[in-house]
Amino acid sequence: MSWELVFFAVFSAAMLLTGIGVVALENPVHSAISLVGCFINVAALFVMLGAEFLGVLQIIIYTGAVLVLVLFTIMLVDPNKLPAFYVGKPMQRNVSAIVGAILMVELGVAIVTRVALEQIGPHTNAMVDQMGGNVQAIGQVMLSEYALAFEVASLVLTVGVVGAVVVGLPNRLGALDTVTMSLGHSRGAEDAIAAGPKFESPMNIPAERYVAPVGERKVVMTKDPDKYTHPGETSK
Amino acid sequence: MDLTTNHFLFVSAALFVIGMMGVLTRRNILIVFMCVEMMVAAVGISLVAFSHETATINGQVFFLFALAVAAAESAVGLAIVVALSRQGRAPDVEEMQTLRN
Amino acid sequence: MGDQPIWITFIVTFVIMIVLLTSMAYTTWYERKVLARFQDRIGPTRTGPAGLLQPLADAVKLMGKEDLIPEAADRKVFYFAPMITFITAILAAAVIPWGGTIELFGQSVNLYPTDLNVGALFILATGSIGVYGIILGGWSSGNRYSLLGAIRSAAQVISYELILGFSLVGIFIITGTMSLKEIMFRQHETISFGPFEIANWFVLSQPLAFVLFVIAAVAETNRAPFDLPEAESELVAGFMTEYSAMRFALYFLGEYISMIIMSLFASTLFLGGTSGPGADTYWPLGIMWLVLKAIAFLFFYIWLRATLPRFRFDQLMGLAWKVLLPLAILNIALTAFFRLIGNGQVF
Q1: Distance of alpha carbon A25 from alpha carbon A28, whole angstroms
Q2: Residues 6+ apart with CB under 8 A from C333
Q3: Among A61, A124, A227, C12, which residue's CB has the most CB atoms within a 10 Å radius?
Q4: Which residues of chain A carry a pLDDT beneath 70?
Q5: What is the pLDDT of residues A58-106, one digit of tens each?
Q6: Pairing state between β C196-199 and C190-193
Q7: Three-class SS of residue A31?
Q8: pLDDT digit string (tens) for C72-117?
């Protein structure tokens, strides 16, 4: 038993347990915390494999950015609207267990019977050390051999950011349900008043302009005088 | 007993299967999303393990690109969840069937 | 090179931990004293000479208080959230170099706990895990103010971590390494500037990056004028509204430790670390220079707190994404361009 094996056992056991936690915990926030633990252990395995740059990136990008955003979203979503904890219909559950078992056996057989790759590549440990370390070696390969893929990855990220902004804009998907009304003048109030009897306007609206409620609408009030919902815009 | 690549591959496969079962059984879109990220990380362990075994750096570079794509995917996915909750709809995979038929 | 038996590493780490924890307590004293001077007061005087026992008195008081847990709190998360902030803040000290390898009692001792190949990124990584302490603490309190503080903090830390990372890229381009030790020893060299020999501190070759780094570091540690997560005039105390006794102290001390770490980090990256007169021949002088630089940084932190009003949240995010990020990218492009000129690959 080498120390490496002990460390490997500890890290991978923690990783798998927290991984199970993600699936099995009821509260989504607890699942997310469990996933944080899982990813930190994945980063530890990366470091064991001599990929310390990826280990740190795994923590900075996944744990530091993506999961913080997930937590952010979980906290913003109305907890009463979250689907109840539900491990599928019985059929679904059984199928997933069977498929999972089959896949695990299949992968296990593949791993056990796989022929070890004998060709040793150009980046032996001495070579990596000579280049100055893992970071330098990755940089060298990524910006020469994979330069095109690198550019495409930056394009994918740009498209992702633009897509996220477009999808997340309040007036795209949400246009049917929200009405924006600016404070300080009555522009946008026509539709806001139609939001239903539950809504009380901060201004006095004459009775003849009162429109009967069309349905439940969410009223957003803004300080910006130009951001009101134009009449007719929401009554599609 | 020494540490070999197979150990890492087994752990990676197990994490992948756990993530897959999560995707198949949970209804909350955010949990499904987290399970998908977990599967990506599992594949990453395999890539890095092979990279270590063959003493090439390519596996690590592949995972770097996977990381970039996963980050972009998460941005779009979370924007969809935010848009859904703006509409007052639940983040439930079984109720998201607007595009059915 | 730095091969040493593991027990020496343990001793070095232990000494650094003790020094760090003590200096953390005395940073609170330092802040009180300096802040008092700014406001024309004299600060703590009753406990010991010049109030030097004040941190001890505070610790005893905080330990003696009742540990309250709100009814609506998620107890488990509420328990361990402050520890995340504290532990990750201390963890970052592992890669700060205090000098090279020295001979002490016939043993060669490394004055750095570890020399990671990705040391600079390691500090960013610990910072990005540290934000979980704030988010989870705010969420688990079951309080609107806390949740708002947590959400603000998440947005703020993600935005400013980007700038913190980007401002370092110029240095990585110049040195070709991310190891803090190597970056520091590059600054021990001198360059000739006309008739003068001046130190090769990166604040001279990367002034824009230094300004960006300082701004981002203040935001990253949630200090005034970027202390939006705990803005007491709007959010009571933000994410730590519901915390009391030792759990509150963990948050409080975690903030001071990250201030100290950020000061040491900035000194190492931009102000030459242990570089200074006599530091190359006599190692305690090097440590003294590093400590002096860090104290100057801490003074700057307190000066900002005493002088500037708090930003509004949209101003904060606008500053990060519309001003600082383009400047950081400009800095990277300029540095890369000059590096190419220096290599003779352009013109």
Answers
A1: 7
A2: none
A3: A61
A4: 1, 78, 81-89, 115-132, 170-236
A5: 888 888 888 888 888 887 776 776 666 665 567 777 888 888 888 888 8
A6: antiparallel
A7: helix
A8: 777 888 888 888 888 888 888 888 888 777 777 767 777 777 777 8
Question: What is the spatial distance between Cα C36 and Cα C46, in angstroms, rounded to a whole number?
Answer: 14
**Helix axes C283-307 and C6-38, enclosed angle (nearest 10):** 40
Domain spans in chain A, listed from the N-terminal domain onward: 3-124, 125-168, 173-222
B66 contacts chain A (CB < 8 A): no
Q: Do A60 and C125 touch (CB under 8 A)?
A: yes
Residues on chain C touching A132 (C-beta within 8 angstroms): 176-177
Distances (CA, A) of C223 to C227, C228, C298: 5, 8, 11
User: Domains (ranges, CATH) in chain B?
Assistant: 5-86 (1.10.287.3510)
B47 has a chain A CB within 8 A of its CB: no
Are C130 and C85 spatial neighbours (Cβ–Cβ below 8 Å)? yes
pTM of the model as a whole = 0.81
The beta strands (E) that lie in chain A are given as 178-182, 218-222
- Counted across chains A and B, CB pairs separated by less than 8 A come out at 259
DSSP state of A133: S
Nearest Cα residue in chain B from A87: B25
Rounded CA-CA distance C175/A214 in Å is 65
What does each C-alpha distance from A173 to A80, A158, B27, B82 come to in angstroms? 21, 21, 22, 10
- Interface predicted TM-score of the whole assembly (ipTM), two decimals: 0.88
Q: Looking at the domain that runs over A3-124, which CATH code has it been given? A: 1.20.120.1200
What CA–CA distance (Å, rounded) separates C214 from A186? 45
Tokens 């079984």 -> residue: B94
Q: How far is B12 from chain A (nearest CA, A)?
A: 9
